[in-house]
Amino acid sequence: MGNGGATALPAAGGHGGLAAGAGGAPAPSSAGCPDLDGNGVRDCLESLVPNADFAAGLAGWTAEPGITQSFSSSDGKGDPRSGALAITNPNRSPMTPGLTMAGSALCLPDTSASAYDVYLEVAVGPASDGVVQGGITFAFHDSADCSGAPSGMAPATLLDQTLTGWRLVQEIIRPGQGTRSLLVRLVVVKPFDEASAGASFDNILIRAR
User: Fold this and answer.
1) CA distances (Å), 205 to each of 54, 87, 96, 118, in order?
2) Chain segment 168-201, per-residue pLDDT in tens
3) Cα 64 to Cα 36: distance, rounded to the nearest angstrom
4) pLDDT tens digits for range 84-97
5) DSSP classification of residue 33
6) Spelled out in words, what is the top-level CATH class assigned to the domain 7-208?
7) How far apart are CA 133 and CA 160, in angstroms?
């Protein structure tokens, strides 16, 4: 699986609680609420995702069948007052070839823009043999509540185990005409014959372009 043409960079500010400011100078970010896109606006004030920094737990996120989700104190910006969403994919079938992709989902209703900027931080692994990916994907729905069959999907944007620590993912998605809601999926991908693998997710900025 590719990364959908997205950019994966070291997470801005690493674990020091800083985001890149004007001219590359560090600028402090509020508790659990950075500015990943560097536009001078805290992401939690402009993201369509409620509780985008998981400072208020995991409200709104629903684990898919067989998947385990939990609140992690390991924050993308190293802020002890916030946290992250940790997902474990335990689906295993030793005799089944190929990959299993599953995770946790949230519906963004009544979205009608032709394009969206997406930023988030992802920390992948560990896995027993190092074959694991974590990332984000979207399903586009003509309904206002993500019900019914999707009318389209965005390619999964994935980081693999070779990139250690928190990493910044950046992409642009372009839903088809008539899309009224987005099903956001944070996913863990691994081979079916591999044991459980996981990833953590934090600071999700989704905004209309």
Assistant:
1) 12, 19, 36, 6
2) 999 999 999 999 999 999 999 998 888 888 999 9
3) 27
4) 999 999 888 888 88
5) B
6) mainly beta
7) 4
